[in-house]
Amino acid sequence: MKILVTGGTGFIGSHLVEALLKRGDRVRCLLRKTGDLRWLKGLPIETAVGDCSDETSLREAVREVDQVIHLAGITKAVKEKTYFEINALGTKNLIQACLENNPRLQKFIYLSSQAAAGPCRNGNKKKESDQCEPISPYGQSKRMGEELALAHTQELPLLILRPCAVYGPRERDFYTFFKLVSKRVKPCLFGEDRHISLCYVDDIIQAILLGTRSQVPSGEIFFLSDGQDYRLEEVGEIMAQAMGVNAICIRVPVWVITGMAFFLEYFSKLSRKPPLLNKGKVEEVVQKNWVCDITKGKTALGFQPNISLLEGAKLTFEWYKKEKWL
Ligand SMILES: NC(=O)c1ccc[n+]([C@@H]2O[C@H](COP(=O)([O-])OP(=O)(O)OC[C@H]3O[C@@H](n4cnc5c(N)ncnc54)[C@H](OP(=O)(O)O)[C@@H]3O)[C@@H](O)[C@H]2O)c1
Description:
The chain is an alpha/beta fold. Helices cover about 40% and strands about 15% of the residues. The protein contains eleven helices and 14 strands. It has helices spanning about 10-25, 60, 80-100, 135-150, 175-180, 200-215, 230-245, 255-270, 280-285, 295-300, 310-320, and strands at about 1-5, 25-30, 45-50, 65-70, 105-110, 160-165, 165, 185-190, 195, 200, 220-225, 230, 250, 290. The chain has a seven-stranded parallel beta sheet with strand order 3-2-1-4-5-6-11, sandwiched between helices. A three-stranded mixed beta sheet has the order 12-9-14. Bound molecules: NADP nicotinamide-adenine-dinucleotide phosphate (NAP).
């Protein structure tokens, strides 16, 4: 099978490309001219230069592939409108390019996000059938990407996967958390317990690979996580255990991270580099329940997460150490 992967230079995408090659698929990667190729170096892939925000640049990339796995997207931006230009309109452009240049496409898999659905408002786990209430520009842009894709379910076999927060080797956001824990600090938020879903990158890749072979109807959506419900405080404890350190819990009031986000956003406008933390991220972090239900994916796709947080944190920590990130 020949598969076009967008976002192949990124964290999840580079793991996916390796896994597809290992399975025996032929892989074409969509690359931006400015893309960082370090994780793809030496891999036997075909490349096509293109940018999701420019539909004409996608025409050649989508030709004569059997499936498209669309991971290209941004999780941080200097300006809010950039989320919508890349995550939402970028998805629309890619689908349009497929419809016009590859009418025999067998499947289009869109890696959306739990953020597209928003947090869970009742005490339960969020299900795919629940109403979508994204609360950040990132989440809203991913939901808009879903809606733009869902408008074509009759013309294009579409599968939407919604991972929760993903961690593992090459990841940079949790890396900050690992760095703090390695300095014996477990950052926690003041106030009530907050609950989240998490998933190790290999389990997300397992779900995508299952998705490429699944026969579910076009337009189905699946949440992906390791199936557990973690208290935010517990995440730091498990990471510290994985790293073999005793870390102290530092409780940060919400107004402190709101202030930090304000300053980081201000400096990001000056430097024109996306900030590590912004208002949207703070809005997401302060929510009480980000736990999703993966029963549907287990039943319909055969998804079976294998890696516990402790095991995944150990693997990630070992990789950070090996690469001298820690
Ligand atoms: N990481 C998570 O926790 C998580 C959770 C849920 C969903 N997701 C979704 O999973 C996908 C991959 O996430 P990730 O964490 O692997 O992100 P990442 O490491 O930041 O990688 C993003 C990828 O998208 C590419 N890209 C960005 N803008 C593009 C454009 N205009 N045209 C073409 N390619 C573009 C980047 O290419 P360059 O090398 O050119 O920058 C890079 O390959 C995203 O769609 C994200 O929304 C991630």
